[in-house]
Amino acid sequence: MPHRTFIAFILPSALAMLIFIALPIVSVVVQSLFIEHERVMVTAENCGPFGCKKESHVDEAATAELRRDQPLGRFNGLGTYLDRKHLAAKEVREAFAEASGPIDFLTRVGSLPLYKALGFTLAYTFVVTPLVLILGFMIALAVNALPYFVKGPVIFASLLPMIITPLIGSLILFWMIDANGIIGASLQALFNDPDLSLKASPTLTWITLMVYGVWHSAPFAFVVFYAGLQTLPHDTLESAMIDGANRFERIRFVVLPHLMPLAIFVGLIQLMDNFRVFEPIVGFNAGASATSLSYAIYTDLRSTGAPLFGSAAATSMLTIIGICILMAPVLVRTWRDFKRRH
Amino acid sequence: MSVLTAKTSPWMRGAAIGFITLWLLMAAFPFVWTLWGSFKVQGDFFSRQDWLNALYGVQTLAETGSSFTGRGYYGAWVEREFWRSVINTGIVTGFVVVISLTFGTLGGYALSRSTARYAFWILIAALIFRAMPHITLLSGYLLPFFQLGVWGYLSTAIIVLVAINQPFTIWMLNSFFQTIPKDLDESAMVDGCSRFQAFRLVIIPVMWPGVITTGLFSFLLAYNDFAVTAVLLSQENQTMVPKIASFMGSTQVQGNVMFAVSAVVSATVPLFILVLFFQRHIVSGLTAGAVKG
Amino acid sequence: MATISLKNVSKKWAGFTGVDALSLDIADGEFLVLLGPSGCGKTTTMRMIAGLETISDGEIWIGDRVVNTLEPKDRDIAMVFQSYGLYPTMSVYENIRFPLRVRKVPRETHHERVMRAAAMVELGDFLERRPAALSGGQRQRVALARAIVRQPTVFLMDEPLSNLDAKLRVSTRAQIKNLHHELKTTTIYVTHDQIEAMTLADRVVVMNRGIVQQVGTPMQIYDRPANTFVAGFIGSPAMNLIEGDIRSGVFTATNMRVEGLAGMPDGPVTLGFRAEDAGVADRGGQISAPVYSMELLGDASMVTVQCGKALAAVKTPKDFRIAIGAPVGITVPASICHFFDARSGHRIEHPGKD
């Protein structure tokens, strides 16, 4: 296709991505280097019958004017990145100096906001992704063995957790695990512990969120694997049977290798999607015991009073760098494939 | 498939059926339960005495004189004006789908037909954009949008959602277009079409299934979005999902959780209908990206 | 109707030359076949003429216009694709009418022209069907009808028969030949099948690795191949090629000795002869070797022997029989021999030949 035609066709899409994805990244970089203005203080001498007293108070008008003139705030360099809410350079150094051992060090660092969010995000990503693959594969195998006429309804029901709005899905589960909801109450009865609450303990909250994550994404893995099972190489399976492979050897040597590219595809998509985990934390109202990187940005942007643009931008930058590291092996592989093909 | 299932022992079959039953329960029961519960009062759906009350509606009967009540729906739709959000969601998703598909079919077609190196780079850039958490971009939008005075409007949210969905859309359409032989555009061009005419008269008619599938996913992305709409829309322009989230903040206190439950059920219905009618498209769409592996 | 000229036309991709400085003049009404193995640049050449591929270097003229930068639609050509490129959402009738529709040919003439084109390829009964409901041969004819409906100045055909089964291929080949005879439109036809080339072409262009090997009528190419590539590509079976030496008018190779080559320079050389020109000798013969294989073709029997690394096949009468391994003598008189430079492969004329 001639270059000129190509440009004409791609232009709307490319412009949309350039203006609303690439430029905002630049904007994030710039914003992360700035910090909100301090409030303008004025000192006035207040003289009364008992002598004069110096009082300082916020000059609201001057503060508003300053904010209007320089909306970005004041230049802060990499300060925001290094402060306590982000990389917390000082605190980490202190923890390193004072910690009694590696566990103590990790506990100390893990209680810092960014590392806490990073810890949950990574734990969520790397627990949910493999579980989704395994559960999805098992459902696919089981559905594949069902008689034809029930497959349609089963697939219909299986799609629901995935198609549902994440926030709504997590709300539905949230109500069910409420101490007065069906699952919460049943669990209390089961463990005979009237104070048991899935919301109270951080560990249980983590587990709940991850269970939600698997519930939400397993249908996706299932559908892809199920489609893969429909295109199994029959010749190879049959020759494996003739060569004497039993059922499990056939799965091991023919089915799994056939599904491997699909597993990589699902795993990649899951890695990207789980790394941005956000809505369930809002839905489960779990911000106290589990925060993710996305959630941290959200709370900065929605913070009462003025949004903390600088802080949100710094976390965003760190998140973007994180996703790039996560994606690097994939990109390198795609590039190699491309080089080989051309 | 017969090769795989041949000579399955009854034991294996039983285990498979048991497993599937369990999964179906997990997948579908929460929806059934919430739908049922939305017609009860809060005292039943969140019963302090016995969760079985939610089944029989003891409190509901006591409070309203009937085992079922539409109070939650009335409260959400009328008192709290949920209908406004429904209309807003309709506007946003409608425009997002149409614009996404227009931009995406043009771009995806160009990418699928170009052998140049930059086409590859555009796809890679799109992949990276696709991986980026939406909220990171939002922190880039918010301040400039405030400054430009475009914050809070539906049109702003629409354009942003279109852009955020573009990477996904062009990837998906690109892989659909690649299944259409190039011979088709080339014969059209030799027969007298310009590139655009070939695209419009010959390729798009063949592409309808792919366009519908991609449209479904654009719809889902726009409809299910929380981050963009929650941060970019003003109170009066809120769509359903952020509206429900704001219910959560206020209703819990006032004992009106049932408003939120009813709103949640209302917002789920269109998705159900969608899966009911387009199950095949959704399945083919999910696998379209995977086929090329 | 138009002549076509290619002047030093090249197609280069990064680090790869698809077509190298090709020059060619095609006369008005000529049926020209581009012949070569896959990847030889024949399809690329045709696609550059069609405007589906950009031209890296050189000029293409159709009639009195340079068409290098013209869109395909502005070149007044029609093309039949290997996989036909039919529009699956349109009926056969609409498929054939499509070129008229997009070129804004006056509406009232459409029906008559479509019906005439359909009649020429005997498609009258299928006009309302979709392409998916047609057999391979019928689809092929729809593609042909779509090409002829507009009476363009040039027909381009890209391996149009390669997706048909052997029997259908023969009848469709005849149909194409007949169509060309009737319409007399300049036609360029790409194929890798030398039989199609021989039967259809006014002139054949043999290509390999982006370079023209020989241009000529089918008989010229068969009788006087310009190099070992053409010799080995044309004919069935292809010409036997045996490497050996000439010393004072005598060619020698393993199991082989040909005399009477006075006037040929001494040195290493490749000797070629066609299976159908040689025969089995009662006694003696220029080749004597054990039989390597014996194949019955029905109308003839093929005897193959080894001469060093090369295999040499000879066509014998259909009732000839001989056991594998039995010694056989083969007559290869100097008059049927072709000679090629051992290094470059170029043809060397020998003065003794008629």
TrEMBL record, chain A:
The chain crosses the membrane at residues 7-34, 122-143, 155-177, 204-229, 250-272, 308-332. It is found in: Cell membrane. It is a multi-pass membrane protein. Its main location: membrane. Gene3D superfamilies: MetI-like. Keywords: Cell membrane, Membrane, Transmembrane, Transmembrane helix, Transport. InterPro entries: ABC_transporter_permease (IPR051393), MetI-like (IPR000515), MetI-like_sf (IPR035906). It comes from the Bacteria. Residues 118-330 form the ABC transmembrane type-1 domain. It holds the Pfam family BPD_transp_1. Belongs to the binding-protein-dependent transport system permease family. This is ABC transporter permease. It comes from Shinella yambaruensis.
UniProtKB/TrEMBL annotation, chain B:
Its main location: membrane. It is found in: Cell membrane. The chain crosses the membrane at residues 12-36, 86-111, 118-144, 150-177, 198-223, 257-278. SUPFAM superfamilies: MetI-like. Keywords: Cell membrane, Membrane, Transmembrane, Transmembrane helix, Transport. InterPro entries: BP-dep_ABC_trans_perm, MetI-like, MetI-like_sf. Residues 86-277 form the ABC transmembrane type-1 domain. It is a multi-pass membrane protein. Pfam families: BPD_transp_1. Belongs to the binding-protein-dependent transport system permease family. This is ABC transporter permease.
Automatic annotation (TrEMBL), chain C:
Belongs to the ABC transporter superfamily. One of its GO terms (molecular function) is ATP binding. It is found in: Cell inner membrane. Its main location: membrane. Signal peptide: none annotated. Pfam families: ABC_tran. Keywords: ATP-binding, Cell membrane, Membrane, Nucleotide-binding, Translocase, Transport. This is ABC transporter ATP-binding protein. It comes from Shinella yambaruensis. It comes from the Bacteria. NCBIfam families: PRK11650.1. Coiled coil: none annotated. It is a peripheral membrane protein. SUPFAM superfamilies: MOP-like, P-loop containing nucleoside triphosphate hydrolases. Residues 4-234 form the ABC transporter domain. InterPro entries: AAA+_ATPase (IPR003593), ABC_transporter-like_ATP-bd (IPR003439), ABC_transporter-like_CS (IPR017871), ABC_transpr_MalK-like (IPR015855), ABC_transpr_MalK/UgpC-like (IPR047641), Mo/tungstate-bd_C_term_dom (IPR008995), NA-bd_OB-fold (IPR012340), P-loop_NTPase (IPR027417).
